[in-house]
User: What shape does this take?
Amino acid sequence: MTMIARHPLARSELPNDTAALARYLIGKVVVRELPEGRISGRVVETEAYVVGDAAGHGYRGMTARNRSLFLEAGHAYVYLAYGVSYMLNVSSEMQGVGTAVLIRALEPLEGIAIMRRNRGIERLRDLARGPGRLAMALRIDRSLDGLDLCREGPLWLALDGPGLAGDAEAPAEIGQGTRIGISKDADRPLRFYARGSPFVSGPRSLNR
Assistant: This one.
């Protein structure tokens, strides 16, 4: 299958505020290059983990595990949650500041057959709806931690672009609400999502 032409995000155009970056990434495209082909998906849900955020991995400072979190904006921070699921995050501010945006859900665009094999399911809606499913569908693990997502490589971020029908998606109306599955600073409205998208995770009551 012919790959869709895409262009990496320019680091110079990334907002230098974590919450603003979480909103900005809605509608952008995550691209995963594998030996058997390309996988891509449009970002439909993110969460921001900001400076001073008790729920953020950078709250207590840099460790060997979270070092990539402190890279300049636009690098991958990948960690294993609860020993079960990998999570893809994008470092979000200047080097030395431990903040990031969690990519929570994607709308599949390319490589859907590969995603189905990686996930072991057929239902399109559930392939990358939730951060753990997303990482499994794109075969993301700690080997990708620290990658520069602003240039083409095994994993990178692209500008909004066409889907399978060949037409660019209209900009989504962006909703905002509290984050999912955390106990610290849980009431902060730092989750962003594409309103009306069936690929957003969580209960419908949180996605209005």
User: Anything to note?
Assistant: Residues 195 and 208 are 7 Å apart (CA to CA). The domain at 11-206 is CATH 3.10.300.10 (3-methyladenine DNA Glycosylase; Chain A).
